[in-house]
Design a protein that fits this description.
Elements (H helix, E strand, L loop, with lengths): L3 E4 L4 E2 L1 E2 L7 E3 L4 E6 L24 E7 L7 E11 L3 E6 L16 E7 L35 E4 L2 E4 L3 E6 L7 E2 L3 E2 L2 E2 L11 E5 L7 E7 L16 E10 L10 E3 L3 E8 L2 H20 L3 H11 L2 E5 L5 E8 L8
Parallel strand pairs: 1-5, 4-6
Antiparallel strand pairs: 2-6, 3-13, 5-18, 6-17, 7-16, 7-18, 8-9, 9-10, 10-11, 12-15, 12-17, 14-15, 16-19, 19-20, 20-22, 21-22
Helix pairs in contact: 1-2
Amino acid sequence: MSREVISHTDGHVYEFAPEMEPVYEAADGESLTIETIDSLNGEIQSDDDLLDAIPEEVNAATGPIAVEGASPGDVLAVKIEDVRVAEDRGRVLTAPGFGLLQDDPGIEHPATRITEVDGEGDGSDGAGSGSDGAGGGSDGAGGGSDGIGGGDRIEFEGIDVPIDPVIGTIGVATPDEAISTLTPDDHGGNLDTTDMTAGTTAYFPVFQAGAMLAMGDSKAAMADGEMCGTGAEIATEIDVTLSVIEEPEVPLDRPLVDTGDAVKTVASAETMAEAVEIANRDIVRLLARDHGLSRTEAYLFSSLVGGLEISQVVDPQVTARNAVPSEYLSVPF
């Protein structure tokens, strides 16, 4: 059965807001392919292209996509079936005033390194670039349909790095204020979480009718923390199936992910201390319900089976998660 393809050329957003106009309405349970452009809109194509500052419009998120039947208080399940790189290069870079070591005088800000897919090309021929839909799949340039970007590694300074694509920005309409796609919060957004990849089901609270899902800012590879401020930023094609969980028995306040091996709460806040505390509170609530434990017992248990993980430390809010192996915690929906 063919999937509807939703491209960034059909519509994209630079903020998640309470009122958003959908570019497509999906049926509950529908499977889609979502095409994304790299986080810098194809502007960086060679090592000589430098980012003097973070643009006002960054992390274009394809969508939003309304999901039929989704209402405030529901949960939107996003089953991520595949994430494919869709151009022949990524880009990893620094920018002034951005990144974990932004004040280190020994590190250049700005700096750019192009990461060729399969180590092919020299970054000068423009494949996968340009103003006509950089990173898009519709005309073949930078698309995945002709095999460009079909490799299993990128090259950084002669070093091979396995391609392990990640969706950097993914979220839904916010409850009461607009939030830039650069910033993560309870709606999702710029979570930069390595678990947002093939094989994961991500769950989001629904704050507005239709949920209004959007995603983009993908990376061919990225480490937990995203220390310099980027991964290998790249265009992608993402296969997802969207399902609405109506009136869930357990309310969801912010994103939750099921990797198949672990259930993880995801929290964003101004400081890492706040983020890990929120992620721990959320996991305690789930453990208490799953095992019939008191909050105290669940808190103690979380210190035996949980595991705090850093998603990113460079955005306007930082993001952390608390992971519990699936043998100890089931998805509550």
